[in-house]
Design a protein that fits this description.
It is globular and about 40 Å long. It is 28% helix and 37% strand. The longest helix has 15 residues, at 80-94. A seven-stranded mixed β-sheet has the order 1-2-3-4-5-7-6, with helices on both faces. β6 (121-126) and β7 form a beta hairpin. It has helices at residues 8-15, 27-34, 80-94, 109-117, and strands spanning 2-5, 39-46, 49-60, 63-71, 99-105, 121-126, 135-141.
């Protein structure tokens, strides 16, 4: 497996294969969020096949927002998400960010477990009509 910086088209193509994404974002949403701000688009490859991605951008001074990411189901539990997260953290630290912020939904238990196991802390919960759709905000302080 290798991880490379990549492009929006590859990420959109991957996101359309993720079963948990009911309505994957179109390229225009990625362009809007990444336009005129520092950002990082990562894709993990198994040989030449894209198998996972992670996209983030600066949302406020000193904080890097880890916005979207996923791994194709057949490649999960093989260290792909961890490798992408490690790359993103190292990049953010090198760019001078002191915090990574992340948001997920209550129904995405694997993602919640992943972030908790990676030293993220819950700092906010946004209620929705269904408890499964509550948005859970997490943050991780980056050590120098």
């Amino acid at each position: 497996m290798r991880i490379e910086t990549s492009d929006i088209a590859t990420v959109v193509q991957l996101s359309q294969q993720i079963p948990e994404f009911k309505d994957p974002y179109p390229a225009a949403e990625y362009e809007k969020r990444c336009h005129h701000v520092p950002h990082l688009i990562l894709v993990a490859y198994e040989q030449t096949t894209p198998i996972g991605f992670k996209v983030g951008y600066e949302r406020e001074q000193g904080s890097f927002y880890s916005w979207m990411g996923a791994v194709l189901p057949q490649y999960r539990r093989k260290g792909v998400a961890q490798a992408l997260a490690n790359y993103q953290e190292e990049w953010a630290r090198a760019k001078g960010y002191d915090t990574i912020i992340f948001k997920t939904r209550n129904r995405l238990k694997a993602m919640l477990t992943f972030t908790i196991n990676n030293d993220f802390n819950i700092f906010r919960v946004e209620e929705r009509t269904k408890i499964e759709e509550y948005r859970i905000w997490l943050q991780k302080k980056l050590l120098p």
